[in-house]
Amino acid sequence: MALLADERDFTAMRRYASFAFDDHGAYLRQMEGLLRALAAKGVHTTVALFDPVAYEEFCADTRLDPDTPASRTRYTAELAAAGGTVTYAGQPIDRLVPRLIGVAEEQATWEYATALLSRAAHRGDCRDDTARAAFDRAGAALRAVVEAAGPGVHHLVCSVPADGTSLVAVLHADAREAGPPKLAEPSALVFRTVLACGFALRSPGGLVLRTIVADTPETVRGWAQQDGWLRPLSEAEVFTAYCTDAETGEPIPPEHGVEYRAGIPLDRPE
Length: 270
Description:
Structural class: alpha+beta
Radius of gyration: 22 Å
Number of strands: 10
Helix content: 40-55%
């Protein structure tokens, strides 16, 4: 199923006579009812985000009439094949919609980062590295950060300025039990791809790690991307990064119960 999560997108679809809804709230309630009915019958359902602009382009490329249910069904099938879907597991619509938007944004980030890597390799911007080597190094860096952080629940954010915009990837890692940390997929793939962009393009990006361990203060550490690897930030650099308003440059109070620590040195792979 493809869902019009945004009211503006819903309004855009109302120009089609075959689209029978006229109220976004009522539409969402009916979609939730349909999802529940399908689940009650044992039907496995995944939900994608319906984009009216992309739908119009799809219909133009495939020479389909956009004002038919059949065309919307075919577009929905294409969305499902491309990924970026959320499995319906009985969650209420007000929880499903934000998750769906987040997954769609993550998919867009991955596609854009992948295109940047491919373009860099084609132009030779990677110098002595190939895009694949940068991706492999990003995987090694991610493993090194999580392993160095030790037990706990880890929240990682990677930010890379590239091509006039900023790529941001978020990843959760659960290292509370023995064995390798559990990384959320496909977020881990998106994270590695964004980090690889920073390595391949020699972009001055950064990586921040927040660790939560029971009965201890939360800790925040940071690394800067430098020369195709991660340079640990000092405790002062981490504190400054977190306690400075990014827009105004003015200081902001530190978070209560959070310790700002230096990044851990990471062995660079051969």
